[in-house]
Amino acid sequence: MKHFTTYMEPAREVTALHRITCDLCGQAIRDEGAEPSYYCEEVVIRAKFGNVYPEGGTLEQLEVDCCLDCFQLRLGPWLAVNGAPLRKSVVDV
Known about the structure:
Blueprint: E1 2-9, E2 12-21, E3 28-31, E4 45-53, E5 56-64, H1 68-81
């Protein structure tokens, strides 16, 4: 779940992403005010669909915010039981 905060800048009100919490357990996934870290932990669950033509188009998007624990301990086993086991790979960045 994305949590936004609203604050005033000179002559305008701004709404900005403040933090993201897991839709399943409520645990904080990312807090914009936290200290920077070199550790990377990201779960992206998103479906896009629609019409795209050479000159442009429109896509609809479905997504859920999920922490790594829920992904590994809740969604992973459910996917495996339903015939779609998770595949593990290593990515050099």
